[in-house]
Write a structure and sequence with these properties.
- It comes from Rubellimicrobium aerolatum.
- This is DUF6473 family protein.
- The structure is a single chain.
- The chain is α/β, with parallel strands linked by helices.
- It contains 10 helices and 9 strands.
- The strands form 3 sheets. The chain has a 5-stranded parallel beta sheet with strand order 4-3-5-8-9, sandwiched between helices. The chain has a two-stranded antiparallel sheet with strand order 1-2.
- Helix 3 crosses helix 10, helix 7 runs antiparallel to helix 8 and helix 8 runs parallel beside helix 9.
- The longest helix is centred in the last third of the chain and has 28 residues.
- The radius of gyration is 18 Å and the shape is globular.
Length: 252
């Protein structure tokens, strides 16, 4: 697990582990019994460099335990591969799911590290045939890979972009099928053309029938103010999920 611990070196955060999970999460460790909210996602959810990330602010506002399951560079693939993380999500009364990681999941063109999803592992024969001019031996991260592919051949990159969007929707649907409908999807629409592949409105709409709600926050960054804005936008939808969950328990 030395490789995973290196993520936290110099962060000022004390990581914790839940059960036999192979993932490390932001501490302090929270209880996973009774009513709690699970926050699942990447860098925004983790809140590296932020004293009080939005899961902590939600906990204070709602008066409910909020478990921060954020992972740096993660897609939903990291959680699907970890039984303890999925158990924590299934046991939660409500889940906040950050819509991230379009390029950070294994697909028919390339594979990524099962825990550090931003780490590129290998290209498939299909991708090698599609981009014969690319030297994949020098690629370590998915961001490097995707920028290189886009620069090499913008027209052929459309094939990569479509494959990643299809894979992302399928993997997110798989997560939602396992966790259930009391999920609030947190989406930060990208403004401009910085990243090669981003979550589009169409991708979010494909998931809308399976979630309790969608919170879209365009232009929100990663700092303290951003986390306060995210928490404020999530309070209402998450509270509604908690109330619905309690009503279902009372009726059963």
């Amino acid at each position: 697990m030395k490789h995973d611990r290196s993520i936290w070196a110099g962060s000022g955060l004390a990581p914790c582990r839940y059960g036999a999970s192979r993932l490390l999460f932001r501490g302090p460790e929270r209880r996973l019994d009774g009513d709690y909210v699970a926050a699942v996602g990447g860098g925004l959810t983790l809140g590296r460099g932020v004293a009080e990330p939005f899961p902590a602010l939600l906990e204070a506002e709602l008066g409910e335990v909020c478990v921060n399951l954020g992972q740096p560079g993660a897609s939903v693939e990291a959680f699907l591969a970890d039984g303890e993380a999925m158990a924590a999500c299934r046991g939660a009364r409500a889940v906040v799911l950050e819509a991230v990681g379009v390029g950070n999941l294994s697909n028919r063109l390339y594979s990524v590290h099962p825990r550090r999803n931003d780490r590129f592992l290998r290209a498939s024969p299909v991708l090698r045939a599609l981009f014969p001019e690319m030297d994949f031996a020098e690629v370590c991260f998915t961001g490097h890979l995707l920028r290189g592919l886009r620069e090499a051949a913008p027209d052929r990159f459309d094939i990569v972009r479509e494959e990643l969007r299809i894979a992302w929707i399928a993997r997110m649907r798989g997560f939602l099928d396992l966790v259930g409908p009391r999920v609030v999807l947190l989406w930060r629409p990208e403004e401009g053309g910085g990243e090669p592949v981003t979550v589009t409105e169409g991708m979010v709409e494909a998931l809308r029938p399976r979630v309790a709600g969608v919170v879209a926050l365009p232009g929100v960054g990663m700092g303290e103010d951003a986390h306060r804005a995210v928490a404020a936008a999530l309070v209402g939808p998450v509270r509604a999920c908690l109330e619905e969950a309690r009503a279902a328990v009372a009726a059963s």
